[in-house]
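Hi W.,

Here's what went into the run:
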Amino acid sequence: MTTRPALFRDPAAFLTGFFKNRDWTIPGLILTLILLMVFFGAQSEFFWSVSNFLNIGRSISIRGVIAIGLTIVLISGGLDLSIAAVAAVAGMVAAMLIDAGMNGIPAGLIGLAAAMVLGAVNGSVVVRLRINPIIATLATLLLFRGMAYVVSGGDNIVIGVNTWAFLGRGNLFGVPVALLVMLGIMAAGILFMRYSVLGNYLYAIGGNSEACRNVGVKVDRIRFGTYMGTALLSGIAGVILMSQGGTAQPSALNGAELDIFTSVLLGGVALTGGRGSLFGTLLGLFIVGVITNGFILIGLQIYWQDVARGVILIVAVALDSLRRGGGYR
Amino acid sequence: MTETKQPLLTMRNVSKAFGHVQALIDVDLDVAPGEVMGLLGDNGAGKSTLIKILSGVYHADEGEFTRDGAPAAIAGPGDAQALGIATVYQDLALVETRAVAHNIYLGREPRRWGMLSRRKMEKDAETLLKNLNINLPSVKVDVEVLSGGQRQAVAISRALAQGGDILLLDEPTAALGVEQTEQVHHLVGSMRDQGKSIILITHDLSDVLKVADRIVVLRQGRLWADARAADIDINQIIGWITGALPSRFGAKEAQA
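Here's what came out:
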């Protein structure tokens, strides 16, 4: 054989590659968002207004901060169900310290530290004890939520306007500070996931942790770190929420996990790890925010909203498995 | 001809036991530069044990190694890599959800100001693949869309990117079709042409004669035969593997 064989030139594989490697997730999400906005705009005259868009932005900012953490943990092949409970504990710790007379700044920072301790608990249970993260963080969800009730005696802690109020209530150039905080962390996260070596390892670990171990990536340490990072973000959300209402509730964000998961999965993050992006999560947040806002504007009854949320969650999970079904497996 | 060149790697009296089972007994083997060695043997003959010793996964109970004539020790995967030994395992250990370039440089990503230098990584990967005559749609495609032969090529490229000149390939064609097998053999040939030494573990006897320069047969943990591929035929290989032909080194059948 004198001619070199058409090495690895496989037209069929090339074509599949061409279509499969065009990722339709982001364009699909943008289109969905536009369609929803057109739909609700037609249904309600109040939808297309600056103040309504700022409302939507405000409504997704706190959940958005938590969703950033959840996205990162899911991409690295982990899972954290305790996200909202961690936020509640962080807000509760900060509020109780402020209530006891502590200056707001150290109190808020201690709240964040408490969140990171809880993240270390999650990380230890998942990484060191090697317990499936669904079970591990379902258990810590109960544990942390219970702690929020125990330390507060089940009461709301009312502190009123405090040092952190600008975070939850303030506006900068007419835009809610909480939204700016969320978008700022989001932007930093997008850069981190795309351009840092560590961010790339998070994707690789979610795709094949064994392959990463083989080449010397410190998989366990990084995984532990994702639970700490997620908890820190939840803690920030908890402190913002506490400052927004001037009150900390042990039941804060109870059930918000579902909306957060819906946004993240809708945004194209795979439950199986290794896939997804923070930009997708941002779009997922806006879609859920627009739907929730639109339903209120068109006067949909509150329990129908729950029904709709359930349906959207199923759609999000179905899209996730569809993406994988269309994939290699 | 090969006798005049200094071997890249030598092994002397390498033995390894697992409990009462002697997996390898006094194996002597030299790896010459730029040769393809087909390492054959029945299940349990000691092929995998030998490969794992060379890649640093197992530690030999006894035996000496040299690299370029200088004494060497293989106490772990890091040592093996430092000696220029790179291993491609059967499961390839690729991250399917990541692009080719990411896989090739996984764990050794080029950095710029502490950040991932994606452009350099992709350019280096393209150069590496080009030098090996590997054709992929792009280094930016995810591994999951590649064929089995292409994946094997990516895994081999990664081993080469680690800077090894002795490549251990564990059953690289076991899961591949005829054409893909041909592609991998072609790749093995072009690596040899670049002066790399390849140790090829395989079950496929007819293929190994096509691609290998040298055939080494292990049987019951002992070196049973070591011959130039051009001098032998498939029946001799089968005879050595099954024990129907006596060892070329006077090794005896183990007492049953």
